[in-house]
Known about the structure:
mainly alpha, 79% helix
Amino acid sequence: MKRDNDAVAGRSRLQDDAVAAGAAARPRGAAAKGRRRRGGNEASAAASRREMIATAAYFRAERRGFQGGDPAEDWLQAEADVDRLLETQHQGRP
């Protein structure tokens, strides 16, 4: 019986050490893998979205021969266009 109590106490000390060190309790097994995978996909999706916006803003400026215009306005309009496109694609998915 003492041995079981030592194991429980040991686990508790490890958890206390993790909290004291600022580490959050992490899920184990499939839940942990799924969470990491979603986080990676979200970062990748954000990077892809930003790249799409940058490309669209560049093409807007190119169409007017890089003369005049406002780069911030090009970006905002490209952002709206890309978001509309992504929303349309997302609606088609289950």
